Request: fold
Amino acid sequence: MKETGEQKPFLAAMYLRLSREDSEVGTIAAFGTAEKKDGTFKAESNSIGSQRELIRSFIEGQMDMELFDCYADDNYSGSDFNRPEFKRMMRDIEAGRVNCVIVKDLSRFGRDYIETGRYLERVFPALGVRFIALTDHYDSFSADAGERNIVLPVKNFINDSYCRDISVKVKSQLAVKRGNGECLAAFAVYGYQKSPENRNKLLVDDYAAGIVRRIFAWKIEGMAASAIAEKLNALCILSPREYKKSLGLNYRGGFSGGNSSKWSDTAVKRILTNEIYLGHLVQGKTERINYKIKKCVEKPREEWVRVENTHEAIVSSDDFAIVQNLLKADGRISPARKELSPFMGLLFCGDCREQMVRRVNRYKGTEKVYYICSTKNRGEGCSRHSTLEAVLKELAETAIRRYVNVFLEQGRLYAQAKECEANLQAVVYYNREIARLKQEKDKYYSLCAGLYEDLRTGVITKGEFDRLRSAFQRKAEKLSAAEENQERLVRESFIFGLRSAGRLASFKNSLELKEIDRHTLASLVKRIRVYEGKRVEMEFYFTDPYRAMADYNEKAASDPSGTFIPTGNETQNASAGMERRA
Reply:
């Protein structure tokens, strides 16, 4: 405060505010902006420095006014009054230290129509506070009824509308970026880093990516998420939060878990279920309620924005699918038993579909390991379905060797399929569902053509002609779209089949193993079901792509002219043969 011999009646608070949008050169304000020759806009006029000098110059020219203090909220939105310096100013007002508030314009004070009106029309008058907005030429000390009741509310409403308009534009811009596969997160997920050249592009972080691959491998081997977390902590591997901090990033994530700096089973599960490690981005899972409220709400899954192949994958799609299947089952093990059961998460009761539980029977130095239905174990019905682990291992080894052999012995089949990779349309041609859709579509186009003859001969009226033609065309277009979608699915299935063939070839060594290990079992077998009467069913991965390619090669070989169109149950017959072999 100035040292004067006379107390002046008005002790003024200089209030300054600048939001992020206002501070960026090129942001178009609601009013009063002018474009420069270089294409930028006069955003500098709203800077904290220019506001301070304007208000200081005004106060120095007032004989009855003295500056008490300056309150500046830099990088704070006007749509929210939860600002630190604004709160400090209000405390000084309520304590009687300030009785005049001066701002450059009404938008610097606030852009929320309701809250701004409440302060200017109720709070300040009740506290005897004079309010001055310089460039809006408003002074509550001298304002008439028209300015208070008409001009002031209209300007506040315009400022509020500016916030709404900015919010809509920002949302639209972010939606475009998400659709283009640009990463909008402030920090890259564990395993990746932001590209120095493009902050919306993800690059693989070699060290963290190696940890991610180990986590997936441990899960396939049968470890529970909690056991993986314990192992990571025992190896003194930094958690995602601490790793980001070690890189010098000011990271404060929503999953920080308080002050904990260690791995948790929740952190492990987030990694095991995140599609980003496949090279895909899934964004837009939450949204703010509106531009005035910062709280976010969850969006329905169908509204999420998913863009594939936006960056390099860390894990294969096969390993990811295997892990998702294993996560559906309980992977816990008894604390007294350190080794992992090879059938953990894979063995289910064939009747009630519940997971089988492992039991050990020890008698006179001998040990017998077997599995029983968990429903029966809880006393809730079903039956024991008791099966010895040694028997299951023998069955699994026999089935896996036979299954892998089926693929490896079909070298000619995959050689032919590989030759057709360059001409995927030939593969599409042999799909019976596409043939059915095409025949159905051609039928409706033929009906449309026949309508012209019926109209010419007077069988139908012009109104009936228009109505029927429109209905037939809609059905034909719908079938055409379904045909295109089916063609896409067939192409994707064929390519997946080729990848699967290569993966199965990597299991050739499993034929030479004396005992099938956990990794091989989990990578090939999706589920094992045990029924009463010692009957066991094994469901393998990769069977559908194999059947599609086997059907294609078989029919293509029997029809060298290239005119074969499947019409019967060829695919079902091939599937049945595959099941018998497996």
Remarks:
- The chain is about 45% helix and 15% strand.
- Residues 1-5, 24-44, 255-259, 561-582 have pLDDT under 50 and may be disordered.
- The longest strand covers residues 65-74.
